[in-house]
Structures are given as structure tokens and as C-alpha cells.
Amino acid sequence: MFFIILLSVLFLIPSGESHNTRKWGKTGHRIVGEVAAHYLTPKAQKAVNRVLGHESMAIASIWMDQIRSNPKYDYTHDWHWVTIPEGMTYAETEKNPNGDIIWAIQTIIDDLKSGELPSKKEERKLKMLIHLVGDIHQPLHVGTGKDMGGNRTYVAWFGESSNMHRVWDSDMIDFTKLSYTEYSAAINHPAKKQIKKWQNATVLDWAYEAMKLRDEVYDLPDRRLGYEYQYKHHDLLNRQLLKGGVRLAGVLNEIYG
């Protein structure tokens, strides 16, 4: 009876969220940035240090969250996600006039490759790229168009109200009680063949990978999530975080190497 009442309350609460309001949580983004730092070429590392100064990629990774309250950056709000319904390709979708995560990543890469950006603009673009490469590896940032990337699929996480997007952003990561450095050290053991394969994939490939994961992510025996869901999906979660870091390094090596 308690759970029925709880679910009734959850479904009455308006989400107040859209795809762009939640991303990997701070720890998730920092994990991606920390992993990436291990795979930069010396030349790329030197360039990143030049652009970011004393700020690490792990710390710079959450800059796009920190600027959300600044109207100056409202134009970036829709860059964190893309909608590709089941059975459709990205080319077949109606494009967001404000841009989407695939367009944004590809555009920022081109801008950084040009080598013509003023220093402050280059810094902003690099921080955006670090963040968005992390975002696209969170499977629910490639949405179906039905539930705002999981924000409207309400669940109970260990008895607390949540939603599927939040579960993948932060609930499962925070459950481990690891810092971003501890978490990174625990998962950062890819094989050389994996690194090569992951870095050879395109941005569009990353999005289609996320699409293929959606059935697994939404495989819910009921809306009470806890130990079983965490155990069942922690390998997938860790693989996506690791892929994000390895691929971010690959992109930066291509830009600056």
C-alpha cells in the first residue's frame, strides 16, 4: 500500500525538467575528464594545459553546468541532448533549430581545429567539448521523444523519488560513495584494442550506440529500483564513463596532436 501511495505522489509531481536540465552528475563528468587525461599525447596535453591553465579537465568538465543560470549562455541549453525516435536515423529527424548534441560536438571540434579562436573563446569551446562528450555517453541524452530523456519516467531509487534520467546521471554513481579519482582508477583499465576501436568511432556512432542501449536502460521489472538494478547495470555504466574519457582524449589528440 505504501508503494502504491508513493507512486501516486511521484506521478503527480511535475518534472519541471527537460533534457537540458540534467546531465552526468558532477562526479560522472569529472570521471570522464580524469580518464581522458591518461590518454592524451604529449602535444595534446601541452595544448590543453595552455588553454585551461592550472585547471584540470576533470574540474573544467562541469563548467557548462555552472553557466546554466547565466542568460549569456542560453543559446547552449539544447546542446546537451538529441531526440532520435526508434526506427529513425539522425538524418531523418526534424532538427532542433537551436542545435543538438551531435551538431554541437561536431561544430566545436571544427572550430577548435581551425586554430583561429581567440584564447578566451578557445577556452570556452574546449570546456564545452569536454562536457558534451561526457553527456552523449549517458544513454538517455539520445532520447526517444517520449519522456524527455527519462525525466518523465518516475521511479523510486532505494525508496526515494527519482526518475530514470537522474538514476543514470548520478544515483548509480553516487551509490558507490567513490570520489571521481577513486572511481576513475577503478574502471580505467581498457585493452589497447578497445581504445583503438572506441576512438575510431564517429560522433554519430556514439549516438547510435546510446540508442541501442535504451532498451536495456528501460528494462524495468517495476518502478522500485535498488540493488538489483544497480548490480545489473553497473558494468554498462562503467563502460560508458570509460568510453567517454577514452574518446574525449582521442578527439583532443586529433585536434591538438
What does this structure look like?
With 257 residues, the chain is mainly alpha-helical. Helix content is 58%, strand content 5%. The protein contains 12 helices and 5 strands. Strands 4-3-5 form a 3-stranded mixed beta sheet, with helices on both faces. A two-stranded parallel sheet has the order 1-2. Helix 2 packs across helix 7 (119-136), helix 6 packs antiparallel against helix 7 and helix 10 packs across helix 12 (227-256). It is globular, with a radius of gyration of 18 Å. Residues 1-22 have low confidence and may be disordered.
Distinct helical segment count: 12
Number of strands: 5
- Specify the biggest β-sheet: 3 strands, mixed
What order do the SSEs take from the amino end to the carboxyl end, as H and E?
HHHHHEHHEEEHHHHEH
* Helix/sheet category: mainly alpha
> Which regions contain 5 or more consecutive residues with pLDDT less than 50?
1-22
N-end to C-end Cα span: 60 Å
Helix amount: 55-70%
The outline comes out as globular
Overall radius of gyration:
18 Å
Which strand-content bin applies to the residues? 5-15%
Strand line-up in the sheet with most strands: 4-3-5
Arithmetic mean of pLDDT: 92
